[in-house]
Amino acid sequence: MENDTYKTILKPSKEVLHKDKNSKFYSYTFPVTTEEDVKSYLEVVKQQHPKAGHFCYAYQLGKEPDQQVYRANDDGEPSNSAGLPIYGQIQSFEVTNILIVVVRYFGGVKLGVGGLINAYRTGAQLALEASTIVERTINIDYLITCDYDVINKVMRVIKEKNLNITDQKLELDCQIWISVRKKEAANIFSMFDSIFKVTIKKTES
C-alpha cells in the first residue's frame, strides 16, 4: 500500500540558541507551502537580527516524494558547510513544507568547515526538536455534480464513507466538493462515477 501521509510542522518554532566558540547560532523553523512563504519568513528573521553575519537556511516543499523541491543556502559560509547540514536535518526528521533558518553571529574564533557543519546541523536539530511535528494525509479533491433527484444517493455515499465535504452549492444543480485520502480516492471515484446522472472530476487543491 502506498504511503499517503507526510509530516510537517503546525506553526513556527520558538527561537533556539546554540553557542560554539563565542559564535551564536539562532535557529527557527517555519511552516511553508510556497517560495513566497520562504521569502517572507526570511525577511522577518533578517529584521529581527539586523547585525547578524549569516542567514543560512534550507527548505523543502511538497507533500509527495516525487514532487518535492528543496533548496539549501550557505549565505557566504564555506560551500556546503551550512545549508546542506540544515537540509540533512529536514531529511532526518522526515518533514516537508518546512523552512529552517540558522542565524550566525561570528564570535571572533573561526570554527573551520567541520565545526561549521556541526554547529549548523545542531542548530537545525534543536529547532526541529522545539517544533510541533504532525502527520497529515495526502488528499485528492473532487467535485461532484448531480441533479436534485439523485442528491440523496450522493449524500448516502458521503455519509457511509464518512467523507469530508469542503464546499457545496445547491442551485440549479448540486455541486459538492469533497476531499478524500489518496489511497481511498480511486475507490470513491468509481462509486460516484457509477451512479446515474452523477459526474465526478478531480480538482486542484
From TrEMBL:
It comes from the Bacteria. One of its GO terms (biological process) is regulation of translational initiation. Belongs to the IMPACT family. This is Putative YigZ family protein. It comes from Olleya aquimaris. Pfam families: Impact_N (PF01205). InterPro entries: Impact, Impact_N, Impact_N_sf, Ribosomal_Su5_D2-typ_SF. One of its GO terms (cellular component) is cytoplasm. Residues 21-128 form the Impact N-terminal domain.
